[in-house]
Each structure stands twice: as structure tokens, then as C-alpha cells.
Amino acid sequence: MSYLAFEPFVMCVVCKSSLTSAASFFQCVNPACGCRYPVVNGVPVLINPASETFQQTDFLSGEAPDIFFKAYKSPLRKFLKKVQPDITLNRASKKNYSLLAASLKHKTEVRILIVGGSIDGNGIQFLKNELGKDTVLVESDVAHGPNTNVILDAHNIPFKENTFDLVIAQAVLEHVLDPFLCVKEIYRVLKPGGQVYAETPFMQQVHGGQYDFHRFTFLGHRRLFRHFKQSGAGLVAGAGSAAAWSLRYFITSFAPTKTVDKAMSYGVNFLVFWLKYFDYILGQSKGSYDAACAYYFLGTKEEGYTLSDKELLLLYKGFRY
Ligand SMILES: [Zn+2]
After folding, report:
1. Which residues form the Methyltransferase type domain (predicted)?
2. CA of 247 to the centre of ligand 1 (A)
3. Cα separation, 186 vs 169, whole angstroms
């Protein structure tokens, strides 16, 4: 999707004024600010020039980094990556994306923001395939990738308030420095009645190298979204998947060097992946809520609503202390 579709909704991340676009850059309309944002291969880079975390120049090459999206060149590595079994049994995404698609079906001119959307998340085709032709789908990331149509920092989202009907953050909030600030930004850019969908890990080891900062329990995740009214929350993957992750990382922790770790990582999934199938047996067990691999939250922006911490404690689903 070309940026022309969402150009009317973007704003300057420095002064919050509107932006106008030229062929190779976006320009803030506020003369006192005058901030300019590059457009690289048709992708606007709407990063604050004063940001300490990301520099606009990081994105000028237009190349995808080797962090989450790995474009392997060697046929052998491509093959090994393809045949490697997934160690997570995701039992939520397809169902939730189908529910979201159904909830948007009767609406026109739907606007969706995907945060961390450089590549397709698990099950997202169940939403994407159902979108109307007039849908504005903004697939954002802090990296170029096959889907990225805007580069942004989720701590400082370059969209005006009340813009989106749905914001998706699938396996993203563990990778941001300040998830509370990011959720505040998501709330701001959602329309009243707009929905948020998030999947966030709990019992998963470090992935994405140095870009991995947080984990949430079921209640911790709910509190992160306390200004949203809940329409769904639960397990994405349970204790079986968590066991597979744990055993995988236990084995690779014996690797003496990065090269050995990399080599081991190709084979180790074959040794441990079967553990995830216990999630079929465990289902929604209480114990799984205390030991889950990941949780999801689906909520609605209702202005003035906040879940109190007293109400939060009543939502505990594990084995009560
Ligand atoms: Zn500005």
C-alpha cells in the first residue's frame, strides 16, 4: 500500500503538526519546526531526528536488518529454516484474527495499524484476506521488510489521534524499551470504540538478541492495557510450548561460542518441538495460566474507562495463592 493512502493522517513526531509530502521527503507544515523526514524506496521514515534509540540515517539504505527478518541467501540455510519445526503451538491467532475480521466486516474505510509488521505475524492472513478494498492498512516497523510501508517508533507514533479502527502489536511489546508508553500511544491513535490486539510472551527466553526487554504475566499484561475495556484475553501458547522453549535454550546454553550456538539452533528444534503438543491436552488449565508461553489481549478504547487494580486481581486465572 502506497503512503498516499495514509498521508492525510500522519503528523510530525516533534511538534504534532501535519506533514506534506514531496517526492523524496515529508515536511512538517509548521514553519517554526520545519522537520523533514526522508522517504526511502517509497517508505517514509517518520523517526524523530532527536531520537537516541533510532537515527533516520539507519534506514536510508532501505535494507532489512538481520534481526527478525532473515533473508538467507544460501540454499542450505533457506532449506534448514524451512523444514525446522516451530516450537510454539499457537492456538489463538487464527481464531482472534477471524473474530477481528468479522467485527470490521460491516464497516467502510477501515484504518488498521500494525506495529512491528515488517513480516506477517502468525495467522494474520485470516484478517488480511477479509479486508475490504477501501481499507487503509499501515504496516509499520523500525525495520525495512517485505511488508513495511512506514518506518516509525512505537514510543512516538507519527499518526494523529483518533485515526485507527484497529491497532495490532503481535509479539512486539517485549521488544520495546517502554511498553507502557507504547500502549499509551496506541490508545491515542485509536478512534473511540477502536480495538487493540496484542500477543506478548511470558515464558520465552531471549529472542532478537539485545532487542528484548520485557515479559508479562497474565495480569501484568492486562494491567498494561488497563485503559482498554477487555473483549478477550487468554493463552496464545501454553505450558507445553513454554517447556519446548525452555529445553531448547537449556541445550543451546552449552554452546561455547556464537558459531556453535548458531549451528546447534538448526537441529535443536527437532529435539524439543514435540513438547508443544501437550498444549492440546492442557487446554485452558489453571496451571497453564501460571506457566504459559504467551498471552493475548483484545480490548476496546472507551474514553474514561480504567480497570482498577482491585478489579485486576479478580481476573487471576491460575492457582490462587
Ligand atoms: Zn513539526
Report:
1. 149-197
2. 49
3. 9
Contacts of 285 (CB under 8 A, 6+ apart): 238, 239
Which stretch of DSSP H or E encloses residue 224?
helix 218-224
DSSP-derived 3-state class of residue 227? coil
CA of 10 relative to ligand 1 center, distance in Å? 11
Around ion ligand 1, which residues have CB less than 5 A away?
12, 14-15, 17, 28, 30, 33, 35
Three state DSSP letters for 235-248: EEECHHHHHHHHHH
Tell me the mean pLDDT in the region 255-275.
92
SS3 state at 76: helix
Q: What angle do CA 161, 165, 168 make, to 5 degrees?
A: 95
- Residue 37: how many CB atoms within 10 A of its CB? 24
Element (H, E) at 269: helix 258-272
pLDDT for 265: 84
Distance of CA 313 to the CA centre of its chain: 26
3-state secondary structure of 51: coil
Q: What share of the chain is helix, strand, coil (3-state, %, to 5)?
A: 30, 20, 45
Which run of H or of E encompasses 184? helix 179-189
- Spell out the alpha helix ranges (H) of 16-145: 75-83, 93-104, 125-128
CA separation, residue 104 to residues 33, 95, 108, 215, 224 (Å):
37, 15, 8, 30, 24
- What letters, b where the CB count within 10 A reaches 16 and e where it falls short, cover 178-189? ebeebbebbbeb
Q: How far is the CA of 3 from the centre of ligand 1 (A)?
A: 19
Instruction: Give pLDDT tens digits for 167-211.
Output: 999 999 999 999 999 999 999 999 999 999 999 999 999 998 899
* Tally of CB atoms within 10 A around 32: 7
Q: What residues contact 97, with CB distance under 8 A and at least 6 apart?
A: 123, 124, 125, 126, 127, 197
